[in-house]
Amino acid sequence: MNVDAETTILSNHGVNTWLEQLQAALDCAVPSAYEIWRCAQVYLKAGDKKNAMRCQKLNYVLHNSSIPNTVKMGDEVHFGSGGMGVTLHALSQIGNGVVIGTQVTVGGRGRGKRVGAVGKSASVPLIQDHVVISTGSKVLGGIEIGTFSVIGANSLVTTNIPPLSVVVGTPGRVVKEITLENCMAYKNMYLSLRGLDKQDYAKLIKAAILKKNALANESSIG
After folding, report:
1. d(CA 63, CA 97)
2. How many C-beta atoms lie closer than 10 Å to residue 213's C-beta?
3. For the residues of 131-181, what is the DSSP string, one character each?
4. Burial of 66 by CB count in 10 Å (0-12 exposed, 13-18 middle, 19+ buried)?
5. 168 — phi, psi (to 5°)?
6. Cα 24 to Cα 19, 28, 148, distances in angstroms
7. Which of 117, 115, 166 is nearest to 144 (CA)?
8. What is the pLDDT along the chain (222 residues), one digit of tens a residue?
9. Closest CA to 145 of 124, 117, 168, 126
10. What is the phi/psi pair of residue 141, to 5°?
11. Which of 3, 12, 17, 72 is deepest in the core (most CB within 10 A)?
12. Smallest Cα–Cα separation from 145: which of 131, 134, 124?
């Protein structure tokens, strides 16, 4: 590219206007989708609906993501690449330590309902704690994704997934169970737990296994 061509490109009025208007913002770090959503929750708590809605729009502008302020999210939720291309249903529920990859959809579906908040039926997903939803996956309908489950990239999940499951495919199917014997292979996928030593991490997995088995026993008795 010659000097004249470069000069022509740099004289593009549209680009330079945007740079001038957004100079201060562009010199700052880009907040993640989760950080923006958390700010919106603070504004809502303070009764500032206008800034809360601005936060919702900011997620769309910065990350091309639809994350309504009504979404329920727990602590230490992580979005891949800051949260690019994510769509979360307005009534979806996301637990603590969940990891959501880019281009993920957590959405509603006409068929299948679960019992949601205050006993009402819900046709949107409940993502329990420390679930990993990999890039391009779609989790749809009134289903629950059990704690510590891992959804493989580009999977389509429309049925309940037990805790500690590895799911792949379209439709998504459980191909492996996370156990005490193989859990270390998945430790780095749970971003909020990377700081834990192996023993403490194993204790969490063991507790999840015991809870899963207890619930299975209750179901068989019932």
Report:
1. 20
2. 11
3. -EE-TT-EEESS-EE-TT-EEPTT-EE-S-B-TTEEEETTTTEEEEE--TT
4. middle
5. -140, 160
6. 9, 7, 40
7. 115
8. 676 777 777 777 778 888 888 899 899 999 999 999 999 999 999 999 999 999 999 999 999 999 999 999 999 999 999 999 999 999 999 999 999 999 999 998 766 666 655 455 678 999 999 999 999 999 999 999 999 999 999 999 999 999 999 999 999 999 999 999 999 999 999 999 999 999 999 999 999 999 999 988 877 665
9. 126
10. 95, 180
11. 72
12. 131
Between CA 202 and CA 181 the distance in angstroms is 10
CB 99 within 8 A of CB 133: yes
CA dihedral sign, ordered 140, 102, 94, 47: negative
